Amino acid sequence: MTSALSAGVIPAAGSGERLGAKRPKALVKVGGCTLIYRAASKLSKVVDEIVVAAPVGYEAKIAKSLRKLSVPVVVITGGRSRTESVSLALGQLTPGIRYVLIHDAARAFAPISLIRKVLQMLQGGENAVVPAIAVTDTIKIVDENEHVQSTVNRESLRAVQTPQGFARALIDRAHEEARLNELIGTDDASLVEMLGATVLIIPGDERARKITTASDLLHYRNLKQKMKQNVKRSDSKGGKV
Ligand code: C5P
């Protein structure tokens, strides 16, 4: 184990079109807090600094909302793709950083225990660590006419989450290669895989589910509401919160 410095990178520059909200997804609120605040405040309990890639025009607003976190936070303008947003954020890390945890703002409810576990695996010597859960649906590959081509063996499928953790040198190299070859990945591990490096999967967490659609948002809003009601109930019974 080592106590070398770690950083959190939060791609939060998505428009959230699929959510159908009036503002960018990172600024949508659940239980009174924005998704970016929830994601960054949890990360701040584990890492030494944070870089956020924000939607154009929202940089100052996001920086202001995060100014009271316990670690330094830098907010930059995000890129045209998630890969570009992460790449730009990596360029802002201070030189002493050895481990990087890349965490989607859209996975704002990932628990601190999961974030800590990813960092611990890096500190233990792993170079690329990705939380994931087993896929319970049967997945089929289709052609352009929606005709089924084949059925994938579910046993070997994993749905990956964030935070994804990397040794800094490795993720810097992966993004540099991606930039040179104009490659875009839907996650960061895929760029590391292209270098031929080993990526370790660890058990993910249902709470780290990505908020993409209005029904995902409703799920978390209902959950928060239920938690609030439970707290009120135990308060009125004189119970400990
Ligand atoms: O689009 P998708 O849901 O895969 O986005 C995952 C994360 O990447 C979100 O937190 C989103 O804000 C972020 N993103 C970004 N820059 C973009 C597009 C997406 O930071 N250009």
User: Strand-and-helix sequence, N→C?
Assistant: EEEHEHEHEHEEEEEHHEH
How many domains, in number, for the residues?
A: 1
> What's the number of helices?
7
Distance between the termini: 35 Å
Low-confidence stretches: none
**Largest sheet report:** 8 strands, mixed
User: Mind telling me the CATH superfamily name?
Assistant: Spore Coat Polysaccharide Biosynthesis Protein SpsA, Chain A
Broad shape: globular
- Percent strand: 15-25%
Question: What is the level 1 CATH name?
Answer: Alpha Beta
Q: Care to count the β-strands?
A: 12
Structural class: alpha/beta
Reported by name, the CATH topology is: Spore Coat Polysaccharide Biosynthesis Protein SpsA, Chain A
The CATH level-2 architecture is identified as: Alpha-Beta Complex
Oligomeric organization of the protein chains? single chain
How large, in whole angstroms, is the Cα Rg? 19 Å
Tell me what the structure shows.
- Helix 3 (82-90) packs across helix 5 (168-180).
- This protein starts with 5 loop residues before the first strand and ends in a 5-residue tail after the last helix.
- The model has no long low-confidence stretch (mean pLDDT 94).
- It is an alpha/beta fold and 241 residues long.
- Strands 1, 4, 5, 6, 7, 10, 11 and 12 form an eight-stranded mixed sheet that branches. Strands 2-3 form a two-stranded antiparallel ribbon. A two-stranded antiparallel ribbon has the order 8-9.
- It has one domain: Spore Coat Polysaccharide Biosynthesis Protein SpsA, Chain A.
- It is globular and about 55 Å long.
- The chain contains seven helices and twelve strands.
